[in-house]
Automatic annotation (TrEMBL):
One of its GO terms (biological process) is negative regulation of cell differentiation. PANTHER family: MELANOMA ANTIGEN PREFERENTIALLY EXPRESSED IN TUMORS-LIKE, SIMILAR TO PREFERENTIALLY EXPRESSED ANTIGEN IN MELANOMA-LIKE 3. Belongs to the PRAME family. LRRC14 subfamily. It comes from the Eukaryota. This is Leucine-rich repeat-containing protein 14. Pfam families: LRR_1. One of its GO terms (cellular component) is cytoplasm. It comes from Loxodonta africana. Keywords: Leucine-rich repeat, Repeat.
Amino acid sequence: MSTPALPTLLELAAHRLLSNEPSAPPVLQEFTVDLFPPVLTAAFAMGHKEALKALVQAWPFPFLRLGSLIVQWPNQDSLQAVLDGLEDSPVHKACPRRSLLRVLDLTLAFEQFPFWLPSTVKAEMPENMAKPRAVEGVKEELRGAQEPVELHVDLFLRGPFKLDAFLCGLLAKVEQSCGSLRLCCRKLHIEEMPFDSLVGILKTLDLDSIQELEVFDWFRALSEHSLFVTQLGRIRNLRSLKLAYYHWAFPPEGEQSSIHFLSHLSQLHHLQKLHLSYSYLSGNLHQVLSCLQTPLHTLEIRSCTLLDTDVTFLSQSLHATCLKKLDLSGNNLSYMVPGPLAALLQAVARTLQHLDLNHCWLKDTHLQAILPTLCCCVHLRSLGLSDNPFSRASLLGLLERTASLMELKQVLYPIPVECCAYLHGLSWGPVDKGKLSEVQVELQALLQAMQRADMQWRPPPPSPLP
C-alpha cells in the first residue's frame, strides 16, 4: 500500500491560516506572491467564503483561471464568493490594497498551466510578476483601475429553461457594475429558449469576445428571426459558426437586405469554421459561401440536400484550396461521381487533413471512380466512409490503395454488404457478427502485410437498442 504524499509547508500554512478565517484578511498584506495560489486553493476547497473574497480583492496577478478548481470542487457558494470579491472596496480595512486582477476565467476548458497565469505565460505575463516578492512592492499602476475586469465564461443556453442562481447573479453583477465588469463568452450555444431572455443575455455579453457560436434554430416568428440576426451581425470576431435546422430564406439574386442573414455573414472576416446541418440548401450553397471574403479551414455541410451545382461551386471557390477539414455526410453524392465530387477532391488535395463522406449513398463503382483522386490527398489524417454500401472486396482494395498515405491514421469504414442489408443508403437490420469479424481479421492482416500497423480501421459503433 502506497503512503499518501505529505502536504507541503505552503499547504500546511494555508490550512492553518484558514482554520481561523477572521484572521486571514489582515495577514494578506504581509503575503508574498507565492503564498496566494495555495491559500486560494485551500479556501476554494474548504468553502471559506470570506477568505475567498479577501483573496480576490488582494490578488497580485492579472489572471485567475478557476477551471481546474471548479472541476475538483464544484461549489457555487465558492464561485459566488469569488464574484463578491470583485467589489471595488476591500472587505476588510485591515487589508486596504487593491487587486491587480484583470481576467477572471470561469470556463472549464482549462489547460495544464498554473491557474494564476495565462496559458501563454512568457508572452503575456510580466517577468517580475512571476517571482515571489512582497505584495506591498507591486506597482499600483499595473492594475489599470480604469479598465474593466473581464469575466470569461462559456454559455450553453437551452430551454425551456430557467437561469440558475449563479448565472442570474453573474448577469446582475455585470449590469450593476456600470462598466467595471465585462462579461466575455468564448463559446456560446443557443437552443430552444425564450427569445426575450436571449436578447437580454446578448445585450449583457461583450459580443466581440464570442469566437464559437452554435445555434439550433427555433424562431417562431419572422420578427424574432430579424432581431436575432441583427444581434448576430454585431459578433465580428467569430472563428467558428454552427447552424443546425436553420430555415434559410434566400433573397432573389442581386437583392440586398440589411436584416438578411447573408449580409451579416459577409462581415465575419475572421471566420475559419462553418458547420451547416439539417438545412435545405439545394442549389443555394453559392449564396452562402460567396459572402465570405476569407477562405475557410473547416467546412461541414451535413444533410443539406446538396446538388451537383453546389459541389461544383465549392470545388471552384476560394475555400477549396485552403480546406483542412471537409464533411459532406448525409448528402446523396452518388450521382456526382466521377464528375463534381472527383473535381472537389482534386481541388482540396493539397491541404485536406480530414474527410467525412458518411452516408452519401456511395457504392463500389463510386469508390473505384474517386480512389485515384482520393489517393492524391497526401496529408489526409482521417477518413470517414461509414453507412455506404461497400463490399468486402472494395474495402480491402481501399486499404491497399490508401496504405501509401503515410499521414492517414484513422479510417471509419462501413459494415460490408455481405454482413448486413442496406436500405436508403443506411445499414439496416441485424449485422452478421461472424462475417464482420472475418472481415476485420482480413483488414488487420492486410495492415500488417502493408506495414501499416499504425493505421486504425474501425467500423461504426453499434446502433443503440430501442
